[in-house]
Write a structure and sequence with these properties.
Blueprint: H1 2-13, H2 17-32, H3 37-53, H4 57-70, H5 77-93, H6 97-116, H7 123-128
Helix pairs in contact: 1-2, 1-3, 2-3, 3-4, 3-5, 4-5, 5-6
Length: 134
């Protein structure tokens, strides 16, 4: 399943949202049969990103809402960072500025939490504190 995580993104970067959608759909089908909410959340957020690339704001909102629902009980930092970043993008695109800003702030909080978990001289800390492009 780990390979499935990257395939939709590779197609999105290549400017092929239709192919990204095929891969994202497979990733979501596989993630939904697991007991791992963070995998389901990441798969739903990938679906949301693909929907944005296809200019389907309704589908993007539906998918990001599903992703956020998966994260309600527990938010592992890396999946939560990705889900909230996608939520910020979706709500920015749909014009829901308050929700977009709330998720953007959560991304920055998670970024800081991850950085704070590292020693001050750790080079990864500097990378984590680099500005994020939303």
């Amino acid at each position: 399943m780990l390979a499935e995580v990257g395939l939709p993104w590779a197609w999105l970067i290549a400017g092929q949202p239709q192919n990204a959608g095929v891969e994202a759909d497979q990733y979501l089908r596989d993630a939904l049969v697991t007991a791992e909410p963070s995998l389901r959340a990441m798969a739903w957020s990938t679906e949301a990103r693909v929907a944005l690339a296809k200019d389907d704001s309704i589908r993007a909102t539906q998918c990001i809402d599903q992703a956020l629902a998966c994260m309600r009980v527990f938010e592992p930092p890396i999946p939560a960072w990705r889900v909230h970043r996608a939520a910020s993008a979706v709500y920015t695109r749909t014009g829901d500025t308050p929700r977009a800003e709330r998720h953007r702030r959560r991304v920055l909080e998670i970024q800081q939490e991850l950085a704070d978990s590292l020693d001050p001289g750790d080079p990864l800390r500097d990378a984590l504190l680099a500005p994020i492009q939303f």
